[in-house]
Design goal:
Helix 1 runs parallel beside helix 2. The N and C termini lie close together (5 Å). The chain contains 13 helices and 17 strands. It has 468 residues and is of the alpha/beta class. An 8-stranded parallel beta barrel has the order 4-5-7-10-11-12-13-14, surrounded by 7 helices. The protein has a two-stranded antiparallel ribbon with strand order 1-17. Its cofactor is FMN. Keywords: Flavoprotein, FMN, NADP, Oxidoreductase. This is NADH:flavin oxidoreductase/NADH oxidase N-terminal domain-containing protein. GO terms for molecular function: FMN binding; NADP binding; NADPH dehydrogenase activity.
Length: 468
């Protein structure tokens, strides 16, 4: 008799890939040395979605889309991160209208033909038992029009790429913010009420497409000088109608988008929002001109929670010439999320950004209740295996994708006799040429999976077929 073990397939996927159970990035429980699992690696559930850890990949613009459609670059970029287990990974800021892009190479979801490239990315994330979100955005008049690695004054040599296909007239609240690079390229047009309604509808239409693509989470981009952010800012918004003036008027546009999107997504789906805690203007703002402050953000967070937002992603800054971009550390930046969590932590989940690169710093922020989650961008760009690195920093063992983890088995200690191999499927391969003469002369490798005496699988690929 020959016994073979075959990989269990990932469910619902039209191509072969092994099922990843538990998901990569999940802490081994119990830890082999009995250590308490740090809060950074404790699961978190928001509505109907559970995340295996609290290290999330921030949206990272790649400036590599073709007509708004994601390309193989995005699969390579994101796929290498999915397989290494963030609790949630975001596709980059995705425009809800063509003119809502910052560059012609930004991702979009304003048209149905953009769904399929998104769906393929989502499908791969789900094949790895990972959660994936999308950030819906409208840049307003803000941002570059050309990719950031072009220097100011760069001469365009490939006009066939239609560098200005986003539109050189951009909408804004109606402001006098100076942004030198942007001002060289575009004209600003204050947004009329009809335009506001059109953009709200565009957010809804893009959210519907995101549902068709299969995303687990939707985030609304309302920070960093994007359109919704500038409407909320007294520094940027000089309107005198119902969308300007008072705090309540300035946040009206954002709440209209939130309400409209929340109304069409499932009740089980979490709704996130990214905001700028402060514009970082300080004394650089003109005398007497108010700016958006941390106190405003704290006030906004409670209102957003009442409108069905589940998670507030607390960032900071705007792309204005006057903005002061301090070289903040993660700990410095965590003061913003901490202020929100202190007041509204019981009603909204709070995320912190700010250059997290090591497990001790990240875990300290969540252990000290300064945030529930940390979000990392550049750290993942440099090290797609950042989750594993943070686990190593904290001295804990996590599950990793089987195809990656097996190569490290020789360096792993035995975890326990009951839960087996930290998710590795075949702990012991004993080459046993058949005791009875080799079974038809075939050299038989009997793979004895000593994984779990109770269910035989520990989530691994344990379809056993007996060849008699």
């Amino acid at each position: 008799m020959t016994t073979y073990l075959f990989n269990k397939l990932a469910p619902g996927i039209p191509y072969f890939t092994p099922a990843q159970v538990p998901a990569s990035g999940t802490a081994v429980d119990p830890q082999p040395d009995g250590k308490t699992i740090p809060k950074l690696f404790q699961p978190l559930k928001i509505r109907g979605v559970e995340f295996q850890n609290r290290i999330f990949l921030s949206p990272l613009r790649q400036f590599s889309a073709d007509g708004g459609k994601l390309t193989p670059w995005h699969m390579a970029h994101l796929g290498g991160i999915f397989t290494r287990g963030p609790g949630l990974s975001f596709v980059e800021a995705t425009a809800v209208l063509p003119e809502g892009r910052g560059t012609a190479e930004d991702a979009g979801l304003w048209a149905d033909d953009q769904i399929e490239p998104m769906r393929k990315i989502v499908e791969f994330a789900h094949s790895q038992n990972q959660k994936i979100g999308i950030q819906l955005s409208h840049t307003g008049y803000d941002h570059l029009e050309v990719v950031p690695w072009f220097e100011i004054g760069h001469e365009f040599t490939d006009l066939s790429r239609d560098c200005y296909s986003c539109g050189t007239t951009r909408v804004c609240p109606g402001s006098s913010i100076a942004c030198e690079f942007v001002d060289k390229l575009i004209n600003r047009l204050p947004l009329k009420r009809e335009g506001i309604k059109r953009i709200v509808a565009a957010f809804v239409a893009s959210a519907v497409r995101a549902l068709k693509a299969g995303f687990d989470v939707i985030e609304i981009h309302a920070s960093h000088g994007y359109l919704l952010d500038y409407f909320m800012s007294p520094f940027a918004n000089h309107r005198t109608d119902e969308y300007g003036g008072s705090f309540e008027n300035r946040i009206r546009f954002t709440l209209e988008v939130v309400d409209a999107v929340r109304a069409i997504i499932p009740s089980s789906m979490p709704l996130f929002i990214r905001v700028s805690a402060t514009e970082w203007l300080g004394d650089a703002a003109p005398t007497g001109v108010p700016t958006w402050t941390l106190e405003d953000t704290v006030k906004l967070a409670g209102i957003l929670a009442d409108h069905g937002v589940d998670f507030i992603d607390v960032s900071g800054g705007i792309p204005s010439n006057e903005a002061l971009y301090p070289a903040t550390s993660a700990i410095d930046h965590s003061q913003f999320s901490a202020a929100v969590k202190k007041v509204h932590g019981s009603k909204i989940v709070v995320g912190s950004v700010g250059g997290y690169v090591d497990g001790h710093t990240a875990n300290a922020v969540v252990e000290q209740d300064k945030a529930d989650v940390i979000l990392v961008g550049r750290g993942f760009q440099k090290n797609p295996g950042l989750v594993w690195s943070m686990a190593d920093d904290l001295g804990i063992r996590i599950h990793n994708a089987h195809q990656i983890e097996w190569g490290f088995m020789h360096a792993m200690k035995k975890i326990s006799q009951t839960n087996g191999t930290n998710g590795v499927h075949v702990a012991v391969q004993e080459a046993k040429a058949s005791q009875a003469g080799g079974t038809n002369g075939v050299h038989v490798t009997v793979q004895q999976a000593k994984i779990s005496q109770t269910n035989g699988t520990n989530g691994t690929h344990a379809t056993v077929q007996k060849a008699m």
